[in-house]
Amino acid sequence: MDCWSSSLPHDDEFEKLMRRINPPRVTVDNDSSREATLITVDSANRRGSLLEVVQVLTDLNLIIRRAYISSDGEWFMDVFHVTDQRGRKLSEDDVAERIQQSLGPRGRSFRSLRRSVGVQAAGENTTIELTGRDRPGLLSEVFAVLADLKCNVVAAEVWTHNSRMASVVFITDESTGLPINDADRLDNIKQLLLYVLKGDRDKRSANTAVSVGSTHKERRLHQMMYADRDYDVDDTDCGGTTSDRRKALVTVENCADKGYTVVNLRCPDRPKLLFDTVCTLTDMQYVVYHATVNSEGPEACQEYYIRHMDGCPISSEAERQRVINCLEAAVRRRTSEGIRLELCGDDRAGLLSDVTRIFRENGLSVTRAEVTTRGSQAVNVFYVTDASGNPVRTETIEAVRSEIGLTILRVKEEELLSKSPPQESGRFSLGNLFRSSSEKFLYNLGLIKSYS
Length: 452
Hints:
- By secondary structure, the chain is an alpha+beta fold.
- The protein has helices at 12-21, 49-59, 95-102, 138-148, 183-198, 217-227, 242-245, 273-283, 317-333, 351-361, 394-404, 414-417, 437-444; strands at 25-29, 37-44, 63-70, 75-83, 117-122, 125-133, 151-161, 164-173, 208-209, 249-255, 260-268, 286-294, 299-308, 339-346, 364-374, 377-386, 409-411.
- The strands form 2 sheets. Strands 9-5-6-8-7-15-16-14-17 form a 9-stranded mixed sheet, with helices on both faces.
- The radius of gyration is 23 Å and the shape is globular.
- Keywords: Repeat.
């Protein structure tokens, strides 16, 4: 079958001109539906339009219940049925303006950088990107190195999937609170973190690179894991059972009369699912011409009509299977396995190093983490399993909470909270900090003189 010529504009200057003449138009309709707010976005078409719109809605913490997407030509129009996090219609009068401003002229990057450790100084923080083979205690080792190098972690996000780990960490200098720009110091940080990531077994993360420009944190994590080929299914070396990995049902078929490839995805619904799948299709160099999304029930159904950038549909069985594997990986990367631990307390230097050290010493493995700082408060979320990926025993969780502080570290699961002893105010005991295996680890890196 002959390839259909792509109608997307390719010339950068033409895109800029079309954007100036026809800026994105956003309308918000609160009257047509009793259950959701309808947001319509239409604009001149260009590569990445759909991802940009979905990313903006996701960053505004909106839940997309339905979506109808059409971009077959030089114009695109997307209609989204959205609610807030509590399932209510939107009440903000300025939501259209906020979306329109977010979609305005700004730099965009579709790079798929293949690196293991990258450092960039951007804005108020220095950004570190990490990818490597996941193993119990890895996050503890990373944060221990950063703490010893006088780096303050102000935010971070960590994903693990298929025995791989990707992380974006935002740091400042511990003493000044400013970004770290010294080239020699950055090189030292990269080399020590690379040493940690490689460990004894990982040969796929042996390079370092310095990234340029700012990136969207979750967008970047998808790029990093895709570049690291976390979608390669290895039955002898991946977390979870086969049934776990196949929770997402993906079919890929060609529509011969229209020249499209039709992708259908069905899986349990969760927040940001549409963003995750659109990210992956974009990274794979596919263009979404039409799509319908329905996630009003417990299950999400997504259908995409796609072609390559050159206008061709999928042409081989190997490529079809690769699309299936990549979309399954996109669904699972953000899937939270394990017990959810929520840490909220006064922020201080070395906090994450201390917390993850205690996790490691109690046999906990972090499968996902979200680290934020709000003023003087640290607000962190960790999903943990035991070292084998199995559920953690209640006694172990309570031992960890007792050591960190019962009012500082909480468990979301009600059944565990109901078994907790009476809460009491708790702080870290710093007297034995870095005694045991973490001190030996730092000694081996040459960061301290003795661990005896």
